[in-house]
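not sure who needs this but someone in the group chat was asking about HAD family hydrolase from Vagococcus fessus so here u go. i didnt clean anything up, its just raw.
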Amino acid sequence: MIRKAFIFDLDDTLYDQFLIFKQGFELFLKTYRGKEELSSIPDSILRSIYIKSRYYGDQNFETIQKYPEKRFYYDSLRVRLAFRDFGFDLTEEDTNSIDSLYKKEQSNLVLADGMRECLAELKKEGHFIGVITNGYSKQQRDKLEALQLSELINSDRILVSADTPWIKPQKELFEYYISEHNLENLAIFYIGDSYENDVLGAWNSFVTPIWLNKKKQLVEEGDRDLYHVTSYDELYTRLKKISAQL
């Protein structure tokens, strides 16, 4: 077995972010009466709303990095626009509340089923394990602390984009990480859920992406190296096979 580097995205990769969004939304319904039309939203539609809010969040992320004082406005706006796309016209006060409760629930994060065992096995086999994530430094590090990963991933192997001049998918972010940890001579794999940020970012820096495509997004994959999985079980099977490769 040859030592390899497995670097993970955080949100929607190490844990299922939709479950936290759903918990925040359910707290909103309990706290704010008179929202009966929202209480009947099925999980499938709520998940689609969440995915759309992620899309709007990504659209504004670079702006927020430059103007952090606008963060709460844009965080609320992404939720409001996502609900509006599905026919629900929420007020700014409504989406301020949903976003606030969603963020509070992030202190209750848990790893995806099977993820802790997967990381422990990779570490036991001597592989390098790390994290590269877009986001605000304190918020992302608080999430990692809530996930109780300190015994599996060293803190110096965690890189948050806000602590650098770059964001995914910029190749400089990946290249900086690789250089800092002297990974140039290892086979490097980056595991993430976003095609635009994670797959393209890995390709840009000559890292092999493992795309956790839970949304079953259809894209033109081309002929570059890519491992494509659509569930956590598929991901764990793939990582086990890659880990064992000579």
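also The chain is about 50% helix and 10% strand. if thats useful
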